[in-house]
Every structure is written in structure tokens, then in C-alpha cells.
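Researcher: Please predict.
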Amino acid sequence: MKKIIALVLALVLCATLFAACDKADENKITVAASSTPHAEILEQCKDALAELGYTLEIKVMDDYVIPNTSTDSGDVDANYFQHQPYLDQFNAENGTKLVTIAKIHYEPYAIYAGTCASLEEVPDGAVVAVPNDATNEARALMLLEAQGLIELAEGAGLTATKNDIVSNPKNLDIKEMEAALLPNQLDEVAFAVINGNYAIGAGLKVADALATEDKNSEAAQTYANILVVKEGNENNEKLLALAEALQTAEVKTFIEETYEGAVVAIF
């Protein structure tokens, strides 16, 4: 009889522990994120989520594959590191079913001065350096178009190349080159359109740029960094709470004060 009672008590204890673990799992949100700026931004959400009863666990993964495979497998609840075009390509190539539940920020392209200090004083035939890969070149050309320096063929958009330039009143010489090399070419060109990460790495400040992508532009909206979950979890209560926590005034202020224009809230 004593053995039976002991067994029953052990089973009750196990059931209680399992229930407690299940409850803890329900209240924990695990997110895979790149270290900068994604994990830093997520850190700002912990207190707000704690007030709702959730614990946020951030798993830093400076990798472009594991965060998605981990989200698809359920090892993490969500990820925050990528933009929509990359997610679409990843889903197509890997058979994953991941979806976006919130746009959080973008990292703007900017025009940096080289030998020419102003976009209003661009000399005829000025050399302008842009990235040579398809996606980044299109964003660069669209930024030049937004400044009135060139005009692209209707509908070219995010597939544009310099062959799509239909008007070039200043006869700009568009020089395509490896994106990583652009900051080192500023002494050789009138100005250059440089990716945010390479600009930051070279010590260039977005605040000093001649022009940057507007947050309402097609490129900024398309390449916004997103909060991603597995299909079917779009209406999960705790993940919607995370999305809301990432889109607060407090998070926006943190982004503005911390990154000085190199990262821009898009909400």
C-alpha cells in the first residue's frame, strides 16, 4: 500500500511539473535575431512583454539560414533579421511556409558626397558610383530618380538597371562596382550611392548624406526588416503581443537615438 501511495504521489508530482512547464512555455516567446540592430531592438520589448506576463528570450544568430529553419521547425517562435524579398526566395527554395506579421525598420541607402558636395551643383558628365548587383543597383537608381537626377522607364522599379534610364539631363556617368568597394571610391567620383551596412563600416554617417531613401518609398517598404512566424501562427496571441511591443513609441525613440538615421523605424 505504501508503494502504491508513493507511486500515486510521484505521478501527481510529475503531472504538476509538466503542467507548470507547459504554462511556462506558453508564456515564453523565443525569437532568433541578428545581433545588430535586431537583437538590440528586441531588448527594448522585454519590460512591456513582462507586464503582459510574457518572457522574451532572444537567440542571437548572425546567419541567414538557421533563423528561418528554426522558425519553421518550431525551435523558435519567430525571427527578426530579414526583408520580404529574401523571405520569399527562402520559402521558394526551401519549401518552408513562413509569413510576415509586422514591418519594423529599414536600413536606408544614401548618397554620399565625393568630389561634388551638393546635388544642386552636379557638373555635366559627373561620375556616380552605384552597386553592381541587381537588387542594390535598382535601389540606388531609384534614389537618384527621387532626387530628380535621372528618370527610369515606367515600371522598372526594383528590377531597374542603368539600361532603364530614359532621361539623364546631367549626362551622369553611372559607374557600377562592387558594393563593398564604394566607400573607398568617394575621392574618385562625384558621389556614390552606398548600402547602409557598408557606409556604417566605413565610418560614414547617414546624417551627413546628401540624400537618403524615404521611409514611404517603394524600396524602403519592400526592404523593410520584418518579424516572421510559421504559417498558422499569424494570430497567435503572444506573437501578436510581440509585434505590438516592437511597434511602440518607445522602440521608435530608441531606434532614432541609437542609430542616428542608419536604422529607421517604418511603423
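Model: Confidence is low (pLDDT under 50) at residues 12-24.
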